[in-house]
Amino acid sequence: CADDPLTGMARPHRNFTSDDRFHIINRAIDDQDLFSVHDDWNLFEWLLGKACLDHGFTVNAYALMSNHYHLLADLSTCTTRSEVSDAIGTLQSTYAKYFNDRTDRRGPLFEPRFLAFGVSGDARIHRVVRYIHRNPIDICGRRALGSYRWSSLPVVLGRRESPSWLDCSHFTAQDPSTHLADLANCALTDL
């Protein structure tokens, strides 16, 4: 159990045993920016990769936006699921310390607890992947969605090499141009 910073009481770890995949989301406090220079984005990705490698899970899809992030974490081969909550917490606290030092900022950077939703069934998993990949559209626009660097979509489209901690093999588009057009043209309510 980790202590709740608001109450000082111990709170239980998240239950990562109900499903093999989890949609993990967190945002910055007061919707401030989490990433402002290239090194910020790179460090967060590196810390995410380290968390995956150290704790035996992979990411199937992700998108980093200026003030929040989305991950579809695959825990199917993870033998230490009880540590995944700590791994995400360590990722966030390590990144927050770096960001606060770099920007001469004080206090919490992320919302107190990340959200984690179990995702099961092929249709629902694919819907979450589409949602994650479409999320940066407000930042980069429809035309640049397939080249948005801070997402796994360019990997799915074959435009970027996959890091070792990312496994998009189940979601590789049969026809990348059609897949990209579908993502760019669908409404979030269609997902």
Architecture overview:
The chain has 191 residues and is an alpha+beta fold. The chain is 36% helix and 16% strand. The protein contains 6 helices and 6 strands, in the order βββαββαβαααα. The strands form 2 sheets. It has a 4-stranded antiparallel beta sheet with strand order 4-5-3-6, with helices on both faces. A two-stranded antiparallel ribbon has the order 1-2. Residues 1-12 have low confidence and may be disordered.
Number of helices: 6
What is Rg?
16 Å
SSE run: EEEHEEHEHHHH
- Total strands: the figure is 6
Flag low-confidence runs. Answer: 1-12
Q: What is the global morphology?
A: globular
List keywords for this structure.
36% helix; two-stranded antiparallel ribbon; alpha+beta; 191 residues; 16% strand; disordered N terminus; four-stranded antiparallel β-sheet
Quick summary:
With 191 residues, this protein is of the alpha+beta class. The chain contains six helices and six strands. Strand 4 and strand 5 form a beta hairpin.
Secondary structure layout:
Elements: E1 2-3, E2 10-11, E3 21-27, H1 38-55, E4 58-64, E5 68-74, H2 84-103, E6 115-119, H3 122-134, H4 137-140, H5 153-156, H6 176-185
